[in-house]
Amino acid sequence: MAIQLVTDQLSNVLDDTLRSQLVGNFKAIEKALNDLDGAQAELNSDQDKINQDFKNIKDDNKTRDANVQAIVNILSDYDVPIAIVNGKVVETEEGE
């Protein structure tokens, strides 16, 4: 949305017309700045939500990895031929 300010059409005379034109310009600028402030606040809020979601995902991944490792450890205790290789659970030959 383009902001239309009175520029070249400003009155050359110091009268009510010039005053009205200047006041109109300042009101348009004020509204644009307030809109920018609102948009910035919304962006900041969205960024905070994204950062929190990302942290939650990372925490969930750590928990999942720990749970998989615990399962592999339990299965290994019972001589089930399983191990984690390069982050993946693989079957192993007995005795490895």
* Biggest pleated-sheet summary: 2 strands, antiparallel
Radius of gyration (CA) equals 32 Å
Strand order of the main beta sheet, please?
A: 1-2
Secondary structure class reads mainly alpha
Please report the number of helical segments.
1
Mean pLDDT over the full residue set: 86
**Shape estimate:** rod-shaped
**What is the CA-CA span between the terminal residues?**
68 Å
Oligomer: single chain
Portion of residues within helices: 55-70%
Order of helix and strand elements from N to C terminus: HEE
Which runs of at least 5 residues are low in confidence (pLDDT < 50)?
none
The count of β-strands is: 2
Task: Work out the strand percent.
Answer: 5-15%
Short description:
This protein is mainly alpha-helical and 96 residues long. 65% of the residues lie in helices and 8% in strands.
Search tags:
96 residues, two-stranded antiparallel sheet
Describe this structure in words.
The chain is mostly helical and 96 residues long. It is built from one helix and two strands. The protein has a two-stranded antiparallel ribbon. Strand 1 and strand 2 (88-91) form a beta hairpin. The radius of gyration is 32 Å and the shape is rod-shaped. The relative contact order is 0.06.
Summarize the topology.
Blueprint: H1 16-77, E1 82-85, E2 88-91
Antiparallel strand pairs: 1-2
